[in-house]
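User:
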Amino acid sequence: MSNDINEAPKKVLTTTELLSTYTDAIQAGLDNGTHYVAAFKQLNKTTDTNELLDAALKLTNFHLNTDYVEFPHQFSDEDVQLIFFERLLKLSDNNDSLAISNSEHVQKLLCKFASLGDNTFTFTKSTKNESGFFFGPTAHNRPLFYLNLKTKEFMFHGSALIDYFVVDLEGLDISALKDALSVMMQAAEALKENFGFKIDFNVLDGINGEFYEFAAGEVPESILDELFVKSADNNYILMSGERGGANLTLDNQTKLSVYNAGDSDRPKWGATIHDEDQKESWLYLLLDYPFIKDWYLDNKKQLEILSNKFIFG
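Assistant: Predicted structure:
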């Protein structure tokens, strides 16, 4: 005998109940859309930085569609980060430095720096963390920095910055390159000051004494000899320094020191820069002094500046 005889019969919905369920589901979908619209209006119009961040957080990974209500035209999570980034700069008095270039269409949004002509940039979602995004040029795979609004992290990627601004954009006016870099740095400062973000400036850190650690750990003597020759060819004198290192005095009493901050068993070679205004970072040094740029690029495998390996791979 079947056991079904002991099972409770399935409840059959009446027409009224079925239609109520249907309309409730549609209303829930419409309500969800209303919440999305409210957050998007806040992202687009608020003049309060805290409300701006709150709106971006609400919209990131927001599931707009429901089973009964779908919206055919939607901005992506990457678009939300870009809108946030542009509005943050505007609220920080950088009105004309960066602008979204194709806002007339609901599609992948792009932006341009005022100083870099037609070069376009956008955000791309991290494959490791759904709340993390990389910002870079659309013409090259260069993750210039990482932004995570949820964890309040902003990290520059030294290798990508050098590859793009020193190599890819070689020939552009140095002041134009620095203007664009300054915009990104100002955004990072705004995130730090307004929301307490953790910032890693990496090769853009201009604080005197910042140690730019080389990826190889140890630097062969032949590489320092090469810097000595290139310095002499450009009328600069490379002097012997501590721990087998070297010191180079450049223009305006800017001093570059290359040395081992570790020991003989565990070498930790890198460089520091000292200048009166604390504006000369490692990246700026490569832009300002072509012979140092050539030395770095010729020995990039050993001299590459370390970035966060977990984030940038």
